[in-house]
Design a protein that fits this description.
single chain; mainly alpha; 11 helices
C-alpha cells in the first residue's frame, strides 16, 4: 500500500484486520484486570469475556464508521434503509440466501470440531465459559444488537466497495477477514481451537459477501437475521 495513497483510500485497508486486532486488545485489558487481581490464569479467565470484547469492538467500529461516512457527506444509518420500491423483488433472493446460509454456517462448526477434537462438543466448552450476571447481560443484549449494526456493514458496505483493487479480490479479502476475525473471539493459545475458530465461518463469510456484492440492498434484512442468530447463541449462557 503506497504511503502516497490518500487517507480516505487507506482506511479500508487499515480496517481489514482492525476488528481482529481490537478483539485481542480488549481481551488483553480484561486479562490485565485479572492479573492485577492476582488471578493465576488471567488470560484464560479473560477469554470468557468475549461477548464484552466483541461489544466494545463493535462500539468503536460503529463510531468510526459513522465518522467515515460523515466525511463522505453520507449518513451511516442510511445503509439500513429498506427500499420500499424493491422489497417484493428482494424477498425471494433473501429466502434463498437464508436457505443456503443455514447449513453453510452450521456444518463447518461440527465437521471441524469432529476433525480437530474428535468430539463436536469439545470446542464449545472452551468457547462458552461461565460468566457473571453482568457478562450474561452483555451477551444477551448488547452483543447481538451491536453485531447486527456493525459486522456485515463494516466488511461489505464500507470496506469491500472502497478497496482500490479488483472488485473480485475486494470480495475475497473482505470475506476472508470476516471469517478469520473469529481467531480472536476469544483468543486462546490452543492450536485446534484457533483452527476451529478461524475456519468455521469462512464459507458463510464468502456466501454473504457474494450476496451483498450482488444485491447490497439486502443488508437491512440480513442485519436483522444476524441479530437473531447471535441472540440465539447468547441464550446458551442462560441454559
Amino acid at each position: 500500500m503506497p504511503s502516497s495513497m490518500p487517507a480516505s483510500s487507506r482506511w479500508p485497508w487499515l480496517l481489514l484486520p482492525g476488528r481482529l486486532i481490537l478483539f485481542a486488545l480488549f481481551q488483553a485489558v480484561f486479562a490485565a484486570g485479572y492479573a492485577a487481581a492476582g488471578q493465576a490464569n488471567a488470560w484464560d479467565a479473560s477469554a470468557a469475556w468475549w461477548p464484552a470484547t466483541v461489544t466494545l469492538t463493535n462500539l468503536v467500529c460503529l463510531c468510526l464508521l459513522a465518522r467515515l461516512y460523515r466525511a463522505e457527506g453520507k449518513r451511516y444509518w442510511d445503509i439500513f434503509r429498506i427500499e420500499r420500491g424493491t422489497w417484493k423483488s428482494d424477498v425471494l433472493p433473501l429466502l434463498a440466501t437464508l436457505l443456503v446460509a443455514g447449513p453453510i454456517s452450521m456444518l463447518p462448526n461440527s465437521l471441524l470440531a469432529s476433525a480437530l477434537f474428535n468430539d463436536p462438543n469439545a470446542p464449545m466448552r472452551l468457547f462458552l465459559a461461565p460468566l457473571p450476571a453482568v457478562g450474561v447481560g452483555v451477551a444477551l443484549l448488547l452483543f447481538p444488537i451491536t453485531q447486527g449494526l456493525v459486522e456485515l456493514p463494516y466488511y461489505f458496505r464500507y470496506i469491500m466497495p472502497r478497496l482500490q483493487t479488483n472488485p473480485w479480490l475486494a470480495w475475497v479479502l473482505a470475506s476472508l477477514f470476516l471469517g478469520i476475525q473469529h481467531l480472536t473471539v476469544p483468543l486462546r493459545w490452543n492450536g485446534p481451537f484457533l483452527l476451529w475458530r478461524g475456519l468455521m465461518f469462512l464459507p458463510f463469510a464468502f456466501l454473504v459477501g457474494l450476496v451483498l456484492k450482488w444485491r447490497p440492498r439486502l443488508l437491512p434484512y440480513l442485519a436483522v437475521v444476524h441479530v437473531l442468530i447471535d441472540a440465539a447463541t447468547s441464550v446458551f449462557y442462560v441454559f
